[in-house]
Automatic annotation (TrEMBL):
It comes from the Bacteria. This is Uncharacterized protein. The lineage of its organism: Bacteria, Bacillati, Bacillota, Clostridia, Eubacteriales.
C-alpha cells in the first residue's frame, strides 16, 4: 500500500476525498500513480518523490489537484 497517502491527507481533504477503507486507499494510490506516470510496480518512495515535486510547483500542483478532483 502507499506510504505517502498520510502526507496527502490535507490535500485530499480539501478535495473532499477521504479514503476510509483499504480498497478506497488502494484506488486513490493507483489513481495518483497513473497521474504522475508511475506503475503499480514502482516503489512507494518513488511515487512519493514524484508527487512531492509536483506539490512544490504551483502549475504542476494545480494539474495534480484537478486530476484528483475528477475522482471525487
Amino acid at each position: 500500500m502507499s506510504c505517502y497517502l498520510r502526507h496527502l491527507k490535507p490535500v485530499l481533504g480539501e478535495l473532499g476525498i477521504e479514503p476510509k477503507t483499504k480498497e478506497e486507499r488502494k484506488q486513490i494510490d493507483l489513481a495518483i500513480r497513473s497521474i504522475v506516470g508511475k506503475s503499480n510496480t514502482d516503489r512507494c518512495g518513488e511515487v512519493w518523490q514524484e508527487v512531492k515535486v509536483r506539490l512544490q510547483d504551483d502549475m504542476k500542483k494545480r494539474s495534480l489537484l484537478d486530476a484528483l478532483k475528477n475522482l471525487a
